[in-house]
Amino acid sequence: MDKVRIGIVGLGWWACETHIPNLRKLQGVQVAALCSRNPENIERGRKALGSGPEPLVFDDYEKLLASDAVDAVVICTPNHLHAPMTLAAVWAGKHVLVEKPLGLDPAECQAIVTEAAERKLAVQVGVELRYSDVAQAMRRLIADGAIGELAILRCDIWRQWGAPGNWRADEAQCGGLFHELGIHYIDLLSFLAGKPPLWVSAAGGVRAVSRDYDYTFTTLGYAESAPPGRKPAASETRTPLAVAAFGMCLFAAGAREEIVVEAIGTTGRLVGDVIGGRLTLWPRAGEPQDHSPKRMETKVFGFPGSLESLASFVECVRTGKSPSADAAVGEALCRACQAARRSAAKGGEKMATEAQSTQRGLERGNQT
Predict the structure, then answer these.
(1) For residues 105 and 127, what is the distance between their CA atoms, to the nearest angstrom?
(2) Is residue 50 part of a domain?
(3) Which residues are CB-contacts of 346 (< 8 A; sequence separation ≥ 6)?
């Protein structure tokens, strides 16, 4: 495959200000088609592409999928359309990068997992934070035992009077705060834990800026086994558990755009600033160590990880590899978001995400 030919479906701000500029940075990629029912958005997409081959233009998604000029699609439509559009693309033989969430119902996600596997097609979910340099470095340090046995993960999402607008304000179209915003942090914490959560507990409410939840606190539970070389003590009555927590608030006065995540283990603590690019290891004894990744002095379109996410997707299309954030990860995230909403509706009651016996197949994506 000389070039991976991509069709962009949905030409809002994220597609035109993040995906198209980042795709232009990649070698061996051509934005071959644009699809929108809005002529103004088509022009917006053309402008984002700048000079180069003129893309095919479609106002009908089915016609784009029928085109032999497209190898893969990037879906940037409202959330409730993600699952049916992804499934249609897979049936048409196209690889898919779909913005999060993969779907609003785990059942529709499971159909995508099955169909993509049968057809050997890459389906990647747009959760870019796991692809950031800081998250990747944290994952390696945790896996290498730099902080001992992982016990706690933590981050917070504070926004200053930032209620969602347009279709994002409609629960039927976006799925609510967990599917629209919380999903990024559930994925980041799960990536660092190396597995999807077994259970979720969430509590919150509506106070200031939104019709849906505008503040929540969520806890995630991850099964943990004893590391190699350590046998569980006779006094241990249960499997060690790693827990994660994150708060979300849309009316946090003075909040800055930052994503700081902590990982605490039995012998140390990691503190990573995803946007700022800083990573510090605090060992139990000794001085803190700087593990900040080296960054290129270049403009970032989107968030750290946005460019790397697209580059990984293109590589998977070329090689047949499975994406890190594949359809199975997308289904697990949908289950976790659904469980969080159910838990919050019941005042924080612990909710299982799915049977433990089905978790093992999902752990691979969270360890890549």
Answers:
(1) 17
(2) yes
(3) none
